[in-house]
């Protein structure tokens, strides 16, 4: 256990100084903008009319031909009328529209952000070095490339993107940090030290030339000079914290593998993170020197956690359970809310307003609440989407997106 005098603790061996972790930055390397579009067509085949027998009497032949042709025409019309309309049954849900992207089917979409001064201009990130750009509010997307990343033998997974004004930041794995000051017209790569603890999983633009960056080992760094220097906001990694508090009764801390499964930030700068095994969760508030671990009060392991629009917490467990904290702020007291998940896991929740939120998950699960989470209804039209939906992002009350695997992107119609 550490001494009560936390501020006097020497933690330089736990998280190295970011002044030494970030060497001088290279020159600007603008992104290129290749275009790719694929169009497929389909055709209908109409069966030919049945032939008649030449040996029948003339009047009888005419009657038989008429009956046969009428039956064939009725069958063809019935078949055509029973065909589903793709635009209605697959592409457009009750309040969501699927947007098809010029990317490989195996890409998992991970994050999306728009330039605050121009909400028609946005970027979409994913695995396999995927960066897409839109300039029409998300209706169509084109690929962007990073020349500095293509020069290396890496296939980057871009995890997080954030904008404040025209300044934007992107982080990915293997360690890569990109910065723009012109709303994404060009991107500059900021070098990172190999001693950085963990992989960068989250970035938040907080002000002019300022950002907050989080790794999957619990390191939080902040910069106020465009990334030239960074300082540690916590004094130790989560592994070090648990080594000190393992005797304090945190269940499963001895099995901690040293990484987060998920991490989410509230608008006022508080964090909640789920351990890699889902057996406990951790919270951090600005000014705290360490992460605070919490026991889970639910038997099933935690899948994800995040912040409600009213400041409380939501919690998802494996198997499709959804829990809401009692009251607002950080709490260990949760109550379960019935949902129609069909046994599939719910993976994320996004709030459109304080009362309306959407939850998404495995096998196209899409749920909606209009009373702050007390009751949820399933959007059955999403059952036709053969993909797992990982993330729900609302830019504002009129613009929202659901991100999934296999390049699935849903756009909110309202």
TrEMBL record:
Residues 42-61 are annotated as: Disordered. InterPro entries: PSII_CF48-like_dom (IPR028203), WD40/YVTN_repeat-like_dom_sf (IPR015943). The keyword Iron does not apply. Residues 47-61 have a biased composition (Low complexity). GO terms for cellular component: photosystem II. Residues 91-412 form the Photosynthesis system II assembly factor Ycf48/Hcf136-like domain. Keywords: Photosynthesis, Photosystem II. It comes from the Eukaryota. GO terms for biological process: photosynthesis. Pfam families: PSII_BNR (PF14870). This is Photosynthesis system II assembly factor Ycf48/Hcf136-like domain-containing protein. It comes from Gossypium barbadense (Sea Island cotton).
